[in-house]
Amino acid sequence: AQSVTQPDIHITVSEGASLELRCNYSYGATPYLFWYVQSPGQGLQLLLKYFSGDTLVQGIKGFEAEFKRSQSSFNLRKPSVHWSDAAEYFCAVGAPLDTGFQKLVFGTGTRLLVSP
Amino acid sequence: ETGVTQTPRHLVMGMTNKKSLKCEQHLGHNAMYWYKQSAKKPLELMFVYNFKEQTENNSVPSRFSPECPNSSHLFLHLHTLQPEDSALYLCASSQGGGTGELFFGEGSRLTVL
Description:
- The structure holds 2 protein chains of 2 kinds.
- Chain A contains no helices and 12 strands.
- In chain A, strands 2, 5, 6, 10, 11 and 12 form a 6-stranded mixed β-sheet that branches. Chain A has a 4-stranded antiparallel β-sheet with strand order 3-9-8-7, with no helix packed on it. In chain A, strands 1-4 form a two-stranded antiparallel sheet.
- By secondary structure, chain A is mainly β.
- In chain B, strands 2, 4, 5, 6, 9, 10 and 11 form a 7-stranded mixed β-sheet that branches. In chain B, strands 1-3-8-7 form a 4-stranded antiparallel β-sheet, with no helix packed on it.
- The interface between A and B is medium-sized, with 27 and 28 residues.
């Protein structure tokens, strides 16, 4: 079965510093991979997604992620963190349903704290 | 108007009450989902509806009863819930045949007393 591991529950980064959030997935075929962000009291917003092609994917708000098949990883990065980036980040893998639709299997999330 | 709208945003209910959560999507999608988000646990998929037909039920207790009258509306009927059912309930939609990207509502925060 598909699964996603986000090994870091909390990460604190100074404002202006770089960020990397880790994500490892388990899936037999070529995965569809996603990163979502959730601010307090809000739903999930898609940051970026990978389906095929270039393994370095650009997203919104200056985020990027790199798909590494050999490591089963899809880590999220940002070169300079802003205070408004403080939120919870979820990695997800798409899992096909019999109907041809997909469901998303999520990791447990990483809470990002930004210090001044 | 946001893509996926959920009401109410907050709900407090006793264990003997009956209430409903509502979700509406304005994106023209043909699949809708209910997820449960509890503290310190991954998002749990509860139900999936494709073209109004339920296609996935992840062993959800019968005290949760979904209803999808059309491709734009999804309900979650609640009755005789337990305190451990307190959570954020997220609705999402997607376009079938695509790459599975989900569009989420802001969630309904449920507290069961």
